[in-house]
Structures are given as structure tokens and as C-alpha cells.
Amino acid sequence: MRHILPFVIASLIIVTTNIFAAEPDFLWNADTLTLTFPTPSEDSSGSVPIGNGENAANVWIEKTTGDLLLLLARTDSWDGFGRILKPGRLRISFGSASPFKEGVFQIQMLDLANGLLQVRGQNAEVLVYVDAYRPVYVIKYSGEQSISLQARLEVWRTEKRDLSDEEMGNGNQ
């Protein structure tokens, strides 16, 4: 399986690059099984997937604020149309002096061999992964200066609502 993974990832990268016909905004290193992203993201479209087979998240650093965002997912979070839903988003704010916002952000690297996302900023680092054996998201911050972190769960599926025709489709319409 480990020998197949680089081929699968490389194939996905080639397909994605060809679909959008643009230069990829990441670097792939087949020797170390890492994807490196040199810039923070505008939104969730630039997120990096992590997970353990049951729990997952799309993770990104927000360009303007330097906040760490995790769009949370589970394999049992299905709707009535057979689609897996993202039940909420976790926002970790590092304050106004975030070491990860545009201008001081350095790099984010997805280590596929270890299932770990590493983000480096100005004299700071954050590691994000999903525990392999428990339903736990792990976020480890280290830096030269003390900062005040704020974690906020942003849940948007709190009440019933009517779905549009597009939402009721299978996404291929």
C-alpha cells in the first residue's frame, strides 16, 4: 500500500492540474511524500485534507486573519440524499499579531507518510493531525512569543430549511 500511495497522489495531482489548466500552487516531493503550499488560502478552496478514515478535516490558514480553520467531517455525517455533510467549522484565532497571516506566513506542508499538516509562520509553528486510533483532532502550537488563542466552533446546520433544486440534485446537474 505504501508503494502505491505516491502513484495515486501523483496521479491526482496530474489530473487536477490538467482539469484546471493552471500552474499548481503546491510542490510535490515523491521522496518524502510531502505536498508544500507556499501561500495561505483565500478560502476553503485552498484547504488541505487530513483524517484517520473516520474523522476528517479540510484545513487552511486564512490569508487575511492568519486564523487556522478546520472544516470538520465524519464518515457517518450523511444527509437524506446520500451526501456526506460538513457539520461545522473550527476556527483557531491567534489574535491580531497572528504569526500566520499574509506577510509573515512562511509555508504549510502536508506530510502524507505521517498524516500531519505543518504550518510555519513568523517564529511559530502549528501541527495539525487526526489521531489514528481515537476520534480526536490534535492541534499543537509552538512559538517564541506567548499568544492568546481563541477557539470557536462555527456550526451552521442548526435549523431546518428548504433545499433549492440544485442542492437536491447529485451535484452533476
Describe the structure.
By secondary structure, the chain is mostly beta strands. It has a single domain, classed as putative glycoside hydrolase family protein from bacillus halodurans (Beta-galactosidase, Chain A, domain 5), CATH 2.70.98. Helix content is 12%, strand content 36%. A six-stranded antiparallel sheet has the order 1-2-7-8-9-10, with no helix packed on it. A five-stranded antiparallel sheet has the order 3-4-5-6-11, with no helix packed on it. Strand 9 and strand 10 form a beta hairpin. The chain is globular. 18% of the residues are buried.
* CATH fold-level topology: Beta-galactosidase, Chain A, domain 5
Number of strands: 11
Span of the ends, CA to CA: 35 Å
Oligomer: single chain
CATH first level: which class?
Answer: Mainly Beta
| H/I helix tally | 2
Class by alpha and beta content: mainly beta
Report the sheet with the most strands, covering strand number, pairing sense and barrel closure.
Answer: 6 strands, antiparallel
Task: Name the helix and strand elements from N-terminus to C-terminus, one letter apiece.
Answer: HEEEEEEEEEEEH
- Domain count, please report it: 1
Q: What shape does the CA trace take?
A: globular
Strand content: 35-45%
Q: Which strand order do you get reading across the main beta sheet?
A: 1-2-7-8-9-10
CATH superfamily: putative glycoside hydrolase family protein from bacillus halodurans
